[in-house]
Design brief:
Elements (H helix, E strand, L loop, with lengths): L2 E7 L2 E12 L5 E8 L6 E8 L3 H4 L24 H6 L3 E6 L10 E2 L9 H13 L4 E7 L4 H11 L8 E4 L5 H5 E2 L2 E2 L2 H8 L11 E2 L1 H5 L2 H11 L3 H4 L2 H8 L5 H7 L6 H4 L3 H4 L7 E6 L3 H13 L4 E6 L13 H11 L13 E5 L4 E5 L7 E9 L3 E3 L13 E5 L11 E4 L7 E15 L5 E9 L5 E10 L31 E14 L4 E7 L25 E6 L7 E7 L8 H9 L1
Parallel strand pairs: 4-5, 4-7, 6-11, 8-12, 12-13, 13-14
Antiparallel strand pairs: 1-2, 2-3, 3-5, 9-10, 14-15, 16-17, 16-26, 18-25, 19-24, 20-23, 20-25, 20-26, 21-22, 21-24
Helix pairs in contact: 3-4
Length: 587
């Protein structure tokens, strides 16, 4: 028996059906709540499912939306604006995935990879909701991040009553969600453990897949091998989770699997998305490169009606999540209510361009014709469209020594910049950084951040790139100019003292550098501990620091043309340094 009662949200009255039990095909029951209007009219339903706990999502009714860097921002309140969903004439169904919250069953591994497929549970849930008297049989889904990923898993199962989905901020390539360029990202720790501005998973019955498939003896050997990584051994949380994985099972699995392969690919939403044939709207904001990348990758493989909407900086929406609802309700008005509002007559791709603050529309990504062109690293920390002419014996390398963060609070950063642009210069697409470097250890990180710096010094992050040096191998068949592809299936230690070419992939971006602005690139092996961009992210949204002292030499001479390769639109033109301009004038 469920508890049907009425609650107030401002001036609005909402009927709530609490703790509905939804049977899965294997007999496990999932718990959901249903919010809707007071009358008995059947309505289309928007379903929000995650492992974060449905009771946490109910705070959307009582907590004003928070933006970073508010300490009250909780990254897991992501199911949407309940009151508005009801006001727009939908049933808002919010529930707990198996093994979490008030649901039964067990969840094995991240996204239940190794257990019952989450898409299978979502299929059964969708069909159950469609059969309820308070639903008219038309179903969509709602929610960002984890909730967005669940939408893709659900749609890949093709439940008959799921008519469309609206995905914002989901994480799609599972390896890329947890390791950027092979460098471990701490954000999944926050989501799973409940740290750094996230409540985390509502654990009830979750298990590590690694602990399920390996004997204790074999697992101990694997743990000892992982602790041989100086980066891991230098970070207290990782030592703790490897020694005491109980209640950190999902984070344990991520730490134990630093290479891509079957572990991550088994339930990779990008692979599953090839089975989706319903309409899909993909929305993501700039400033979170890996999720922008994932949305574009997903857009490329979808075969049905689809939209790609890349919004403006900053990267983190409010919590509770309320943004993008206007777009979402237009989408569902068309696909769930049958109202011809013209949305499908509009271009498939919409991209907000930072700097010019214009929105570009097109039928494809990128929305304009582009040409990848180089900006070379030059002496005196300059960037130029002209390569260096001096050899290595004269254009000596730049360098920096980075001590481990166990003994210093200072992150060393090499900076290069263009002269001020003389005319608007537009970049749209992915890019690359080719770095010829020598290190005195067998591994390090390369972290590159590209900024738009205004004349007064104010700046905004445009894109980032990451590469663990031991992951430098390229898949030559899949690599193109400005779009390198690293398989990340093995680690190859670096020979200390040898100059290697490292090619970093720069995440997709869209920006116009206005006259007087500079393009500034920063290179380091750890992320700066705090800056204007990091303050907009949750505290745990940084990467595992290098745990050994490393000296880096960055060569940028005629033999070693270290450079950025950037996606200039046809109208854009890279800036040159004054030095190069003087040379050409005197030639």
């Amino acid at each position: 028996m469920t508890d049907l009662h009425t609650i107030r949200a401002g001036e609005q009255s909402i009927a709530v059906r609490k703790d509905l039990r939804v049977p899965m095909r294997d007999g496990v029951e999932l718990a959901v709540d249903a919010y809707h209007g007071l009358d008995d009219t059947p309505r289309p339903a928007l379903i929000a499912m995650s492992a974060y706990g449905k009771e946490l999502q109910a705070l959307a009714l009582t907590t004003p939306p928070q933006r970073r860097p508010s300490p009250m921002w909780d990254g897991c309140i992501e199911a949407g604006d309940i009151a508005r969903v009801v006001r727009e004439g939908y049933v808002h169904v919010i529930g707990d995935m198996r093994g979490t919250g008030d649901s039964g069953g067990v969840m094995i591994g991240n996204y239940n990879a190794g257990g019952v497929p989450q898409g299978q549970d979502l299929h059964d849930l969708i069909e159950w909701v469609a059969a309820q008297p308070w639903c008219d049989g038309n179903i969509g889904m709602i929610g960002i991040s984890y909730f967005g990923s669940m939408q893709v898993l659900a749609a890949a199962e093709r439940p008959p009553h799921l008519k469309a989905i609206f995905v914002s901020g989901g994480h799609f390539d599972f390896y890329e969600t947890t390791y950027h360029g092979g460098v471990m990202w701490f954000m999944p720790r926050a989501a799973r453990e409940g740290r750094g501005g996230d409540s985390g998973i509502a654990h009830t019955n979750v298990k590590s897949r690694m602990q399920e498939v390996h004997s204790p003896e074999a697992l101990k050997k694997l743990v000892d091998e992982r602790l041989n990584d100086p980066d891991v051994a230098a970070w207290p949380n990782l030592v703790h989770v490897l020694k005491y994985p109980k209640n950190r099972e999902f984070w344990f699995d991520i730490v134990m699997n630093p290479l891509d392969g079957e572990w991550y690919e088994e339930r990779n939403p990008v692979n599953l998305a090839r089975n989706i044939d319903i309409p899909v709207y993909l929305q993501i904001d700039q400033g979170r490169g890996w999720t922008v990348d994932g949305h574009i990758e997903l857009f490329d493989v979808l075969k049905g009606p689809k939209k790609l909407d890349i919004g403006s900086y900053p990267p983190m929406q409010s919590r509770p999540w309320i943004e993008e609802h206007d777009k979402m309700f237009r989408w569902y008005e068309y696909w769930l209510k049958g109202v011809d509002n013209g949305i499908m007559d509009e271009p498939a791709v919409s991209v907000f361009v930072e700097g010019s603050r214009e929105t570009i529309t097109a039928a494809q990504w990128p929305p304009k014709q582009i040409e990848h062109r180089p900006l070379y690293l030059r002496p005196r920390h300059k960037l130029s469209s002209e390569p260096e002419r001096m050899g290595a014996e004269h254009a000596v390398p730049d360098g920096f020594y980075q001590a481990p963060l166990t003994v210093t609070d200072k992150v060393e950063v090499l900076t290069y910049s263009t002269e001020p642009f003389e005319e608007p210069t537009e970049l749209i697409g992915s890019g690359a950084a080719h770095l010829f470097a020598e290190i005195d250890q067998d591994d390090t990180n390369f972290i590159l951040r590209l900024w738009d710096e205004a004349p007064g010094g104010k700046r905004q992050l445009i894109t980032t790139g990451y590469l663990k040096a031991s992951h430098r191998e390229l898949d030559e068949e899949r690599t193109t100019e400005g779009d390198p592809y690293h398989p990340h299936t093995r680690a190859v230690p670096v020979e200390p003292g040898k100059v290697e070419e490292y090619v970093l992939r720069l995440y997709p971006h869209a920006a116009t550098f206005q006259p007087g602005h500079r393009l500034v690139v920063e290179l380091s092996n750890d992320e700066p501990l705090a800056d204007a961009h990091n303050s907009l992210l949750p505290p745990d949204a940084f990467h595992l620091p290098v745990g050994r002292p490393v000296t880096h030499k960055i060569y940028r001479d005629a033999t070693h043309p270290s450079r950025l390769v950037l996606p200039f639109t046809r109208a854009g033109a890279p800036a040159a340094t004054r030095e190069d301009g003087d040379r050409r004038a005197g030639a």
